[in-house]
């Protein structure tokens, strides 16, 4: 079994390490200007400090990955940067939903949505991924590769081993988007419960409204991400898998060339 291209894995790990370090620095030094927001932000930071070891664990894992390019594809290195790229659109969408469900104005809705998504993205996604990696290691006997020839093997590689993909080089084009789709499910439930807590840290809003917002907001945003990933999967399959007609035509032309060759005379009549 051939591994993934070394340069791509190393570059992804190195860039993600830099990104994680920048996020940690922002968490320590970012201070809101408004006093009302500052108190809420400080309370959130005090609770996050108890779990910030997760980010350093991620840095350690990515350092090991950079040193060992054949270790596979950690999907955190793929999905976590994408989560921060989508951060602002997600905050706006979920703030609009909070405005409609809870009746908040734009400013508090954006602030609460931003804090909730910051906690979910910074803590929830890495923590959930790390837990899934531990489960994968237990089930797959330490990350063993079982092959990808049969349908059960493909399902095992794309579902059970989704957190840290085995480097099946010829199947990466469909394994990565499929694993991303699989991981959306646990990430969704983690975001629902984490954002429900972070959205209303001071318990100023009725719990049923916050609970309703967390479910509906994440259903909308994760639904959009699911559609995008399905489109990516379809595009990857169409792009990399040859059409049956073209394969048959190639085989047919090869057969014609072989049949048109004159047999070599043996020298006997």
Task: Record the SSE blueprint.
Elements: H1 6-29, H2 35-48, H3 53-67, E1 73-74, H4 76-85, H5 87-101, H6 106-139, H7 151-160, E2 164-165, H8 172-199, H9 207-240, H10 244-260
Antiparallel strand pairs: 1-2
Helix pairs in contact: 1-3, 1-4, 2-6, 4-6, 5-6, 5-9, 6-8, 8-9
Account of the protein in words:
By secondary structure, the protein is mainly alpha-helical. The chain has 10 helices and 2 strands. It has helices at 6-29, 35-48, 53-67, 76-85, 87-101, 106-139, 151-160, 172-199, 207-240, 244-260, and strands spanning 73-74, 164-165. The chain has a two-stranded antiparallel sheet. The radius of gyration is 24 Å and the shape is elongated. Mean pLDDT is 77; it is low at 1-10, 30-36 and 256-269.
Report the portion of residues in β strands. Answer: under 5%
Quaternary assembly: single chain
User: How much helix is in the residues?
Assistant: over 70%
Shape: elongated
Instruction: State the distance separating the first and last CA atoms.
Output: 51 Å
Return Rg in Å. 24 Å
Sketch the major β-sheet: 2 strands, antiparallel
Strand order of the largest sheet: 1-2
What do the pLDDT scores average to? Answer: 77
Number of helices: 10
| H-E string | HHHEHHHHEHHH
Secondary-structure class:
mainly alpha
List low-pLDDT spans.
1-10, 30-36, 256-269
**How many β-strand runs?**
2
């Amino acid at each position: 079994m051939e591994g993934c291209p070394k340069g791509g894995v190393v570059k992804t790990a190195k860039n993600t390490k830099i990104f994680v370090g920048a996020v940690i620095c922002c968490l320590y030094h970012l201070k809101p200007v408004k006093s009302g927001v500052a108190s809420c932000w400080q309370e959130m930071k005090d609770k996050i400090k108890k779990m910030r070891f997760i980010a350093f664990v991620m840095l350690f894992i990515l350092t090991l990955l950079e040193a060992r390019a054949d270790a596979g594809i950690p999907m955190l290195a793929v999905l976590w940067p994408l989560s921060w790229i989508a951060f602002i659109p997600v905050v706006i969408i979920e703030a609009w939903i909070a405005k409609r469900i809870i009746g908040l104005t734009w400013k508090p809705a954006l602030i609460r949505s931003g804090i909730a998504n910051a906690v979910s993205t910074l803590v929830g996604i890495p923590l959930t991924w790390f837990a899934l990696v531990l489960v994968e290691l237990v089930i797959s006997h330490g990350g063993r590769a079982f092959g990808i020839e049969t349908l059960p093997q493909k399902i095992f590689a794309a579902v059970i081993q989704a957190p840290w993909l085995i480097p099946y080089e010829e199947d990466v084009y469909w394994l990565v988007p499929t694993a991303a789709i699989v991981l959306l499910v646990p990430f969704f439930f983690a975001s629902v419960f984490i954002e429900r807590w972070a959205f209303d840290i001071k318990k100023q809003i009725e719990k049923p409204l916050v609970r309703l917002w967390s479910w509906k907001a994440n259903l909308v945003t994760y639904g959009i991400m699911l559609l995008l990933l399905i489109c990516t999967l379809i595009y990857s399959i169409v792009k990399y898998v040859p059409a049956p007609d073209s394969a048959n035509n190639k085989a047919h032309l090869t057969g014609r060339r072989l049949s048109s060759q004159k047999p070599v005379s043996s020298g006997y009549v």
